[in-house]
Design goal:
Helix content: 55-70%
Low-confidence stretches: none
Largest sheet: 6 strands, mixed
CATH architecture of the largest domain: 2-Layer Sandwich
Strand content: 5-15%
Number of domains: 2
Distance between the termini: 98 Å
Radius of gyration: 32 Å
CATH topology of the largest domain: Beta Polymerase, domain 2
Mean pLDDT: 87
Number of strands: 8
Number of helices: 12
CATH class of the largest domain: Alpha Beta
């Protein structure tokens, strides 16, 4: 290695502590920005080029660099996203945080060959006003990252080194992974549109048009459909209502034959009186001053099952679904069936 390259190495050694410090600062800035934006990443990697790696680079093309500042990847970071469209979101965040050297940055997604799926990274050369050296930030999807690592592991370098039959198979696999990457983003986009449409339908009150599933039931709960019944039950003892998650009722309503949110609203309308009568029997002679927000939907289900002839077996299945199978569910179901026979709603 000549004196020129040795001088660059000396500059590297002298500034290594600062390189390590800046790398951590950049990493922290990126993490904070992505957390604030709600961007979920598959990975965020960083490194400072080792002395041996830099020496190898200088031995190959040391005359290309006048000073250490001409080497743009002493500090390198890689941001790995789950979805293709998140790469552009990440890039936008990087552009706001740092100054991008557009002349030396490259979007390899726009210049790739048919067999280069794993190398479709977006590469930015960046700088900060308080730091005289540039740094590199690569952005790509988790599938692109995995393919690049696997392809590198096979020793694949060029069409000359790999027999054509293997090159063809690699190209086919690259195409398949690229299609998978695109489809993941497309599916996410379509699901987002679906959720927005569902939320709009729920908000508009057109509940008969909304199929019952996890997303729609979650939106439905946002309307607090059981609040009126719960408040009526709470008034029996002037009790406080403690909110608890109610998503576990979704499969119970499905098992009761509900296919739309409109079906649930009809159950609320038809069986609220029965649910209230059951609650009065449960807590009317107690001094209970705190009740769970699950009491309303639970008693609705009990009233529905009893009125429809589901009996003890139906009540037990409901408690098994809500709380997990237990021997006590059988005795609770038997008690409820016996006591409910004398309630007015059962004879109407």
């Amino acid at each position: 290695m000549d004196l020129h390259c040795e001088a660059i190495l000396d500059e590297y050694r002298e500034n290594l502590p600062r390189f390590l410090e800046v790398k951590e600062e950049i990493l922290s800035s990126l993490k904070s920005t992505f957390d604030e934006a709600g961007l979920l990443l598959a990975g965020l990697e960083s490194r400072v080029k080792t002395e041996s790696s830099l020496a190898g680079k200088l031995e190959l093309k040391g005359q290309k660099y006048k000073t250490l500042a001409d080497i743009t990847d002493i500090i390198g970071l890689r941001i790995i996203t789950f979805y293709i469209d998140d790469v552009d979101k990440v890039a936008s965040a990087v552009e706001r945080l740092f100054t991008v050297d557009w002349e030396n940055s490259v979007d390899k997604r726009k210049v790739h060959e048919i067999d280069s799926f794993g190398y479709l990274s977006l590469h930015y050369i960046c700088s900060r006003p308080d730091f005289p050296y540039r740094f590199e930030i690569q952005m790509r999807t988790v599938l692109q990252h995995a393919w690049a690592n696997m392809n590198h592991d096979t020793g694949y370098k060029s069409g000359v080194e790999v027999p054509k039959r293997y090159l063809r198979n690699l190209s086919r696999l690259a195409g398949m992974l690229e299609l998978v990457d695109e489809q993941f983003s497309l599916i996410r986009s379509e699901l987002t549109d679906y959720r927005r449409k569902v939320q709009a339908l729920v908000a508009s009150g057109n509940l008969d048009e909304v199929p019952l599933d996890g997303d729609t039931f979650r939106s439905f709960l946002g309307l607090h459909p059981f609040n009126q019944l719960n408040r009526r039950i709470a008034s029996v003892n002037q009790a406080e209502i403690q909110d608890v998650p109610l998503m576990n009722f979704m499969p119970v309503f499905k098992a009761m034959g509900c296919n739309t949110l409109g079906d649930i609203t009809r159950i609320i309308k038809e069986y609220s009186e029965g649910a209230y009568q059951i609650a009065c029997y449960q807590i009317g002679l107690t001094d209970l001053d705190i009740i769970s927000s699950s009491i309303g939907p639970q008693n609705l289900c009990i009233a529905f099952i009893l009125k429809r002839g589901g009996g003890r077996a139906g009540i037990k299945l409901m408690f098994d679904a809500l709380n997990g199978p237990s021997e006590s569910n059988e005795s609770i179901a038997a008690f409820l069936v016996e006591q409910a026979q004398d309630l007015p709603f059962m004879n109407q």
